[in-house]
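cron nightly-structures :: item 1 of 1
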Amino acid sequence: MNENGNPPRINLRRAAFTSVGLGTFLFLAAGTLRWAGAWTFLLEITIGGLITEAWLARHDPGLLAERRTARGQAGWDRVITTIMPLLWLTWLPLMALDAVRYQTSLVPFWLQCAGAVMIAASFYIVYRTYRENSYAAPVVKIQRERGHAAVTTGPYAYVRHPIYASGLLTYVGTPLLLGSWYGLAIVPVMAALLGLRSLMEERMLTAELDGYAEYLERVRYRLVPMVW
């Protein structure tokens, strides 16, 4: 339920604002609207986001309401979640300058298609995660008022942080789809922030969430199976 006690609904206004805002960053830097990769990117994140919200509104309105608030966020997490959007807003224009305005990168078409598939796959992982974990808030905190418990099923049986794993797919897929090698070169920085956040989150959950320490012993990998 939202603050008025009503079930949360799809926020079309926010989706439109996000799409227009990101499109403005991309197309202004590119200097043209004739950029198929950017249009594909905007369509994917807009449609994927709306489908995800629609599913949550129908099947888990409590989680949808929780994902629209940052109450109770840990201080260190507030710092990381402030840095990451700022990094995105410099990353997107960089890729536009690289791929379109100055055309300093030449990414093969098949790799651009692979990037689009990665972004779509990231939304599928998000859906599977939300289906298993009704406590998947956008900020790191213990949701005691919602009966927070450790989740070990679905994608959590393979990696400890499937939402972050989906983010990593988006980070790699986006510069490929947009056609920017320079954008891809920034991905390790963004992945490092995800890695840092996962380590800090695990430390807090181990100390405060029953059963989480035992879960860490069973699932070794944080973001990528057989890697880390």
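cron nightly-structures :: done
The radius of gyration is 18 Å.
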